[in-house]
């Protein structure tokens, strides 16, 4: 099923729709009003509205100082661009590292021009990652459509709550009966299936999946309930293993609930124009139950702790004679 994707060069879009634009235009917030993205939603939920306002490009007073990308980050960025065939121009830096002045200058000039610099040895690594991903993906059942799906598609909608939402999909397949949103995650972390559930939870990836699904369903209501979100987890180190995954029912439900909570907080702060920080009161921090259970288990199994008395009145090492204490 063909879909209309409108090119957008700069500034704000006029209304809801699917767009193609440079990443810097998207990240500057291209919506008609300040909008909620998945990254800002995570900050709202995991930190505070004050942190979210500071991170938002249209709410903060001034742009924060940017840190230089690391070499692994540059490899990931270029591999991502090569996998998608979309994104900023790659600028090879013909040096082995960034120690020399010419290498530093070339890198700085590339970033200033909105391009992606990368050292020549790192470019070889990025190309290897991309080649292996593009070679292996079509062999996985259900992934045949990835390589031909439109890349870096932006969706902007006004949610039923009134909030403006925006997403940038790495690739998206839109069919008459269903849609698939693809998201590529290149990292030094293992892509082994048994560890992905914990990784999704630790990085709040379920929020991204739920928000992206909600936005596309708002834009294409006839596909509501038939939109799949898939991660492609890729290892940056050889042999560059990859694993394609979807969130299970629990992850999807929790993600949807978190997104609803983030939109509620967003609307409340926007309406009041107040972005509070952490509670201005003394709180009691809860000790994790798993940590308490682990210690109790050690008390019962560690022979070095045999005979320990946890009653200070009975301990032979008490600091004073409890019987004489006034």
Mean pLDDT: 91
Count of alpha and pi helical runs = 10
Write down the CATH topology of the largest domain. Answer: Lambda Exonuclease, Chain A
* Lateral arrangement of strands in the main beta sheet: 1-2-5-6-7-8-9
* Helix percent band: 25-40%
Integer tally of domains: 3
CATH-derived architecture of the largest domain: Alpha-Beta Complex
Q: Approximately what portion of the residues adopt beta-strand conformation? A: 15-25%
* SS content category: alpha/beta
What does the main sheet amount to? 7 strands, mixed
Our Rg estimate from Cα atoms comes to 25 Å
Beta-strand segment tally: 9
The secondary-structure element order is EEHHHHEHEHEEEHHEEHH
Brief overview, please?
By secondary structure, the chain is an alpha/beta fold. Helix content is 39%, strand content 17%.
Textual characterization of the structure:
The protein is built from ten helices and nine strands. It is α/β, with parallel strands linked by helices and 326 residues long. The protein folds into three domains: 1-67 and 146-284, Alpha-Beta Complex (Lambda Exonuclease, Chain A); 71-139, no CATH class; 289-324, no CATH class. The strands form two sheets. It has a seven-stranded mixed β-sheet.
Please render the helix and strand layout as text.
Elements: E1 6-7, E2 17-20, H1 23-27, H2 38-46, H3 49-55, H4 71-84, E3 90-93, H5 101-112, E4 116-119, H6 120-136, E5 151-158, E6 164-174, E7 179-187, H7 193-202, H8 205-219, E8 227-235, E9 242-245, H9 249-272, H10 289-301
Parallel strand pairs: 1-2, 3-4, 7-8
Antiparallel strand pairs: 2-5, 5-6, 6-7, 8-9
Helix pairs in contact: 2-3, 2-8, 2-9, 4-6, 8-9
């Amino acid at each position: 099923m063909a879909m209309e994707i409108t090119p957008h060069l700069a500034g704000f879009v006029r209304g809801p729709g699917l767009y193609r634009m440079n990443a810097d235009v998207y990240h500057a917030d291209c919506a008609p009003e300040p909008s909620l993205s998945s990254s800002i939603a995570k900050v709202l939920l995991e930190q505070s509205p004050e942190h979210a306002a500071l991170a938002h490009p249209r709410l903060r007073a001034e742009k924060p100082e940017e840190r230089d990308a690391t070499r692994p980050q540059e490899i990931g960025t270029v591999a991502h661009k090569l996998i998608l065939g979309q994104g900023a121009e790659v600028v090879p830096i013909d040096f082995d590292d960034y120690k020399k002045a010419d290498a530093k200058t070339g890198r700085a000039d590339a970033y200033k021009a909105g391009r992606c610099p990368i050292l020549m040895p790192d470019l070889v690594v990025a190309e290897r990652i991309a080649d292996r991903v593009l070679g292996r993906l079509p062999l996985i059942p259900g992934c045949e459509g990835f390589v031909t799906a439109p890349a870096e598609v932006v969706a902007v909608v006004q949610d039923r709550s009134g909030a403006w939402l925006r997403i940038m999909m790495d690739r998206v397949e839109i069919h008459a009966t269903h849609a698939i949103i693809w998201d590529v995650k290149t990292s030094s972390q293992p892509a082994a299936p048994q560890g992905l559930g914990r990784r999704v939870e630790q990085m709040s990836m379920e929020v991204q999946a739920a928000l992206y699904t909600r936005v596309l369903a708002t834009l294409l209501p006839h596909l509501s309930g038939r939109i799949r979100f898939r991660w492609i987890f890729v290892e940056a180190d050889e042999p560059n293993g990859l694993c394609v995954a979807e969130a299970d029912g629990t992850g999807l439900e929790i993600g949807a609930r978190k997104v609803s909570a983030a939109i509620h907080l967003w609307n409340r702060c926007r309406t009041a124009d107040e972005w509070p920080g952490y509670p201005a009161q003394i709180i009691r921090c809860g000790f994790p139950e798993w940590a308490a259970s682990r210690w109790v288990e050690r008390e019962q199994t560690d022979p070095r702790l045999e005979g320990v008395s946890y009653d200070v009145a009975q301990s032979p090492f008490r600091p004073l004679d409890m019987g004489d204490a006034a």
